[in-house]
Amino acid sequence: MLGLDNPVHLIFLLVLLLLVFGAKRLPEMGRSLGSGMRGFKDSLSGESGQAAALEQAPPAAVEEPSTVAASLSESGASRAS
Hints:
- By secondary structure, this protein is mainly α.
- It has a domain at 1-56.
- The protein has helices at residues 7-21, 25-45, 49-56, 65-80.
């Protein structure tokens, strides 16, 4: 058998990848490959995962600058005590 259908070939390939790239680099490569495949699939289907997530998320509340300054001064006062 010459293809990758033989389990011995797959094991040999995995050991070779582990020796060449190391144990720390392989998970990172897997994540980047997965995100690339996911992005490719989304571009083919015409959907955008980020656009759909932004449409469903409620807008973030904006604090008044005076409220932020007051909370910062209170936290500074509590640290000094």
